[in-house]
Amino acid sequence: QVQLVESGGGSVQAGGSLRLSCAASGRSISGYVMAWFRQAPGKEREFVAHIDWSGHNTFYADSAKGRFTITRDNAKNTGFLQMNSLKPEDTAVYLCAADTYWGGRESSEYDYWGQGTQVTVSS
């Protein structure tokens, strides 16, 4: 079992930046693909980005390309999501997820989830 805890959310103005962290415990995160999803009120959970076990391969949703960067530090058992040029439409609860398989962009494909951290972007 892997336990995930997100942090780093907050309220920023449009154009600002936030860095989210996802701290893992229970097992080494090096054996897991890590992903970020987000969910806005009244909307379905949406894939944001994922990163493979080594950190060498990443994939982003179109909404995140060029503005967000997903990274990981296996030695610290932590994943990160750097978010720049934030827009009001980025407002959501951001959730970290992990799974042993690469390629998943649906929430159903991930076995382990954090509780989420709120990101609010004002115009």
The gist of it:
The protein has 123 residues and is mainly beta. Helix content is 0%, strand content 50%.
Your description of this structure?
Helices cover 0% and strands 50% of the residues. The protein is mainly beta and 123 residues long. It has no helices and eleven strands. Strands 2, 4, 5, 6, 9, 10 and 11 form a seven-stranded mixed sheet that branches. Strands 1-3-8-7 form a four-stranded antiparallel sheet, with no helix packed on it. It starts with a strand and ends with a strand.
SSE diagram, text form:
Layout: E1 3-7, E2 10-13, E3 18-25, E4 33-39, E5 46-51, E6 58-60, E7 68-73, E8 78-83, E9 92-99, E10 112-113, E11 117-122
Parallel strand pairs: 2-11
Antiparallel strand pairs: 1-3, 3-8, 4-5, 4-9, 5-6, 7-8, 9-10, 9-11
Note the run of SSEs as H and E.
EEEEEEEEEEE
| Inertia-based shape | globular
Q: What's the total count of β strands?
A: 11
Rounded to the nearest angstrom, the distance between the terminal CA atoms is 40 Å
Structural class, by secondary structure, is: mainly beta
What is the CA-atom radius of gyration, in angstroms? 13 Å
**Residue fraction in strands:** over 45%
Q: Uncertain runs with pLDDT below 50, 5 residues or more? A: none
Structure annotation, total helices? 0
The percentage helix is under 10%
